[in-house]
Structure formats: structure tokens, C-alpha cells
Uridylate kinase
Amino acid sequence: AESAPVYPRVLLKLSGEALMGDQGFGLHPPTVNRIALEVKRAHERGIELCLVIGGGNIFRGLSASAQGMDRAQADYMGMLATVMNALGMQSALEGLGIHTRVQSAIPMDTVCEPYIRRRAMRHLEKGRVVIFAAGTGNPYFTTDTAATLRAMEMSCNAIFKGTSVDGIYDSDPKLNPSAQRYDRISYDEVLARNLKVMDASAIALARDNTLPIVVFSLRQEGAMTDVLYGRGRFTVVG
Ligand code: UDP
């Protein structure tokens, strides 16, 4: 029999860009399907999964406000972008036969459920994948912070941050071939060295609640399931 997973309940955080493939914008359905397949692999093992997806592939509040738009208004638009990504991922997962629910921090009853913590818990217990949309529902926050908040609310064992590299390095491995990957690194070191894992408020929130952040590559097939069982290459911030 296979050993028990190290992380039986996790929140997977994806940036919006993870869904756009080689396009410069929006959703690339084959890429969304490929990520959905990774989620399915983990789900088949009985891992309880929540998802938070960013919106940077569609709209970023900060960029729009730098160009003159009111910041709070732009942030609300960014949150709406995350709802589109959530619906796209829901569609891909349902296409693979996985039961899902989208819960939005900004109520949008016609397309998804509102965020209700106890209801989301129940969905997880029933084996549904819950996708949390619209970030925290507040401007001036990010989906990294939303992911950390929801992971704690849902008693997740860790945040899984899916990226294009297999962990955190002491310098950019795409530029420096001798860059060293950390197996483990502290929250404070991530903050002090300004390593780009998640934004600083999300790291601090995770630190204050000792929620591990696991950074791994979404590019390698099957990597997420391996990491859930403690195998393969990844970095734990903890
Ligand atoms: N956003 C927000 N509050 C939140 C989460 C997100 O205002 O709680 C807005 C913000 O404008 C942000 C946009 O939604 O730029 C998209 O989210 P994010 O930048 O976190 O997406 P990612 O970089 O992960 O794709």
C-alpha cells in the first residue's frame, strides 16, 4: 500500500499567467486542461483540494491605476478577472469528471456560490474541489493574500504554489545555471532576501500562522502529486 500523503488537504495557488500558455493574454484552453489534469491526479488519490487563481492574465489593478485609473475601482475589475479564470478552470475540471464548486468573495449568484466558509468545508469533505474566486473581495489585496487566508480558513496543511520552476533558488535559475535550489527556507529569509514567491503580506500572514508554502513546478507532469507525497523537487517555506 502507498504511504499517506504529507499534505492531505491543500490550497493550490496559481497566477493568472499560468493559464495563458504561450499567449500574452487570457486563457489558453489546452493549458487550463493540462493543469486540470494535474488537479485530477491529486484528487484521485483522495487529496482534498481548494484552488485560488489570480487574474493577472486579464487585468491587474495596480497596472491600471499606474495608468491613471482609480485604484480601488481597478482592483474590483481585477477581482472580476479572477472570477473568469475560476469559471474557466471549473469548466476544465468538470470536463474531467471532477465535481467542483466556485465560491466568490463578491456575490455573483447567477454564475457561482457566494463564499460561505462552512459550506466550502462541507464541499471539501464531500470530495468536491472548491475554487475561491474574487480574491479576498477587498481592493488593495492580492490573490496571494486571498490564498493564504482561505488556506487557513479551510485548515489546509499547506499552500501549494504552482510555478514554472521547481522551487526557490538563490538566484534566477533561468539566467544563472549554477543557481542553488533551497529544500527549505524560513519566511523571514524569503522576506529579507525579497525572493519572489508570494507578496510580502501573504508571506507574513503565512508566517504568523505557521502555514507552510510549498513551491513546485507545474510544468512537469505528475509533479504536484509527487510533492503531495513528499517526493521530487520543491521548496518548503516554513
Ligand atoms: N485583487 C484585489 N483584491 C484581492 C485579490 C485580487 O483587489 O483580494 C485584484 C488586484 O487588482 C489584482 C487583480 O485582482 O491585481 C488580480 O489578482 P493578482 O494580481 O493577485 O493575480 P495574479 O498575479 O496571481 O495573476
